[in-house]
Amino acid sequence: MDLRKIKKLIELVEESGVVELEVSSGDESIRISMAAAGAQVAPAQAMVPVAPSAALSAQREDQQSPSAQTLKSPMAGVFYQSPDPSSAPFVTIGQQVSTGDVLCIIESMKMMNEVTATVSGVVQEIFVANAEAVSTGTPLFAIS
Hints:
- With 144 residues, the protein is of the alpha+beta class.
- The protein folds into two domains: 3-33, no CATH class; 54-143, CATH 2.40.50.100.
- It has two helices and ten strands, in the order αββαββββββββ.
- The strands form three sheets. Strands 3-10-8-5 form a four-stranded antiparallel beta sheet.
- Strand 6 and strand 7 (111-116) form a beta hairpin.
- The protein is elongated and about 50 Å long.
């Protein structure tokens, strides 16, 4: 199966609230299983856990400056502030960024995806911690 199709299926499962989805196409098949809130998941299942601070991030997003733009995660995965552990973060609070500047990396399905600024401005807040799991739509940055 094409990686784009798999990512789209994962996003659809997350958005719809469906607990499990299995799709077969010819010789290939994929099974996506999402845990219900509070449910235990067997370690053999490959899943991206929902970030425990997602509610806190949403609360802080509501408290930000009205002129600030919130950049949200385009996919589920793990948020990284720098290209590798020994490097400086891509951006810090108070830093000026331009449209297209790399702000972070989201690791999803063993692929590193750069997240770029969609607006120019100053980074007001970073809502998630380095190496924290995020889901699609999780607030990442406030830029004004």
